[in-house]
Amino acid sequence: MQVSQQLSAVQQHQAAGVLRKALRSVADPRLISLISRVEAPVASHFTEVLKAIDTMITDLKKEQEKDFKTSQTCQDDRAKDTRAAVKASRNADEKVDSIAKLETEIVDIEKTIKEKNETIAEIEKDMAKATENRNDENIEFLAEKKDDEDAIQVIKSAKAVLTNFYKENGLMFVQLAKPRIVAGKAPPPPPATWDAPYGGKTEETTSILAMIDMIVTDIEDDISKEKASEDRAQKEFDTMISESKDQIKGLNTDITALTDTKAQKADKVVTLKDEKGDLKTEITKLMKTITDADPGCEYFMTNFKLRTKNRDIEMDGLYKAKTLLKGGEFDDDSRELKPGDAFLQVRGN
User: How far is CA 58 from CA 24, 62, 328, in A?
Assistant: First the structure.
């Protein structure tokens, strides 16, 4: 009985020493309470002490698991939030590039529309000038035609007057010019003698009337040629106007299509700017989340290894104290505890 009590006292002293060594590395108030219980003079408390040690070891394991989960959560959350922020930032950059590209395309479209409108203005100017020239030419043609037609009427009236005059008087025109000699034909007969009755110079009269008819024909030919020229000019003008209108129509169709495209691109720019704003808001929130979580996580991550090391020392001390209290021994009991000491080989009594 005395040996058992002495052994218990030795075990108490050794176990308390181990726990004090652990306390020097780990400032855990639970160890102070446990040391007090181990050093208590009542021998029957060993069972309760061993139970308290087991409870403490279980609590330390739970704390270790909690620390590990917290560490993993901090790492995972930070990595997830960082990836999300990087992705959102990259998307925002892409939208900025898309906006810049669309705005450049809109400027190019506006430039093209302006050029096409300027082309339309030039075509309309040319059409107006051509119309003015055509009207002037037509007025000139109509005036010349009227002059020619009036001349024909005058000439025909003169011919009618002459014809009626000589017809009414039974005379022919006097010889107004020498007889015309035509190559290859016999000359006209000599004039009749004075004894023959005077009936006018039939050949000369016929020649004058023919000349009058020739003049009328020439004027009518001129009118026909001028009319043909006028018709060609009008046709060319009509073709030019028609082609110009078709060209303007095509340009207006292009302008309408370009305007629609410009509107679509402008709407896309508005949408992209809204999306960029949403991404900026998302990035701001993510950075705030990272910043808000950073102090706690940074402190925890910085101290995680030290906390783990100290906890291992504390658990090793508890394991060693438990072994000593149960009658086991350890070599080199005087040295400081290091993590893993509790897994040294135990010798039985």
Answer: 21, 6, 21
Q: Are the CB atoms for 31 and 59 separated by under 8 Å?
A: no
pTM > 0.90: yes or no: no
**Domain map (residue ranges) of the chain:** 2-181+196-343
Q: How far is CA 133 from CA 119, 142, 236, in A?
A: 21, 14, 12
Q: Which of 216, 193, 215, 190 is nearest to 203 (CA)?
A: 190
**Residue 286 CB partners (closer than 8 Å, separation 6+):** 81, 84, 85, 88
**Tokens 């997830």 -> residue:** 80
- Does residue 347 sit in helix, strand or coil? strand
CA–CA gap between residue 107 and residue 101 (Å, rounded): 10
Q: For 301-342, write each residue's pLDDT tens digit.
A: 666 677 778 888 878 888 888 888 777 766 544 444 444 444
The answer to whether the Cα torsion of 24, 28, 29, 31 is positive or negative is: negative
